[in-house]
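pinging the channel bc i need a second pair of eyes. not urgent but kinda urgent?? the chain im working w is below, pasted from the shared doc
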Amino acid sequence: MKKITIAGAGPSGLCAAISLARAGLQVQVQEKEKNAGTRWVGSFQCLENTSCDEDFLEMLERIGIKKDFYCKPLYGVEVIDGKGASHPFSSARPLWYLIRRGNEKGMLDYSLKKQAIKTGVKLKFGTQAKDANILATGPSFAEGIAREMVFETNAKDQFLLLLDNTIAPKGYAYLLIADKTATLCVAIMKDFSGINKYFELARSKLAQISPFNVKNPKYKTNFVSFHIPSSAKRDSSLYVGEAAGFQDFVFGFGLRDAFLSGYLAAKSIIDGSDYDSLWKKEFASRLELGILNRALYEFGGDSAFANLISQAEKEKDFGKFLHSLSKPTLAKGFLTPFAKHLLGRNNSCNHAANCAWRPKKR
């Protein structure tokens, strides 16, 4: 029986492990931290559900992952622009599925760990894998950072998204409250040394918009990196999830592609198919469109954002509008090379996987 080693016990690594174990292979996952999910403190995150025709939960079922974790559909969001104006949006289909990250019962990482163990995967914590078949070790360096506060509150359920460059430079801030639990986060793409200052600005602004009480706060700062690899293979290793750079370049949604890349890496090992061909067919075009949308977000200015809001309000169904941003067109294909030129350059870089394109240093 073939033995497979996976480095990293995040969603991409564990998804690959579950698929491989179900196919009858011996699988060992080595994680340098003491447990799965230690990167998070019970944070709310969103499973993005508008970029594809396939619903996220349908995708999980297709790749064999059980939804036995906290998962709440979100049908609306209130967007606050740089002038403080509020723009409420809603959708007939869930825009996102709200989950929690961490190693407590009901959280995504806890659930995936239990599913992996049940399928026969061997987990080894506190060790660093060498020469692993699959690399699921997370981002290689910081191109964006986020600081978050997780807390208990009596405030009403809500989702506020703040888009203001003076508070979140080239990024965003949000307040998510559900079932008496909340996450307040600011994510930035420049001036990293000011993250604590921007966090306090975001907290103050969001509290002005919708007051909330805070009980038992926990804080965490994380980082992400974005790129599109020319190949997600190096030597005999396959790179998945954030280790490969699979992140939406606009708002950092990466869980869909984390699950998919883990599943596709396992599939390539099981049936001998080419991993690069699989992931490129599944979601490379979405990654490319993320470059164009990021360029529009960064360089379009307030007028471009006002125009985007106006278009969204005309569509009425926000889910359909967001879905249209993820659909390739001839015009988008023509503009994407210019977006790449604005945002980055083709040269050597610090990414783990082989890189076709990288952002400029921030």
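so The radius of gyration is 20 Å. and Residues 275-299 form the longest helix (25 residues). — does that match what u expected or am i reading it wrong
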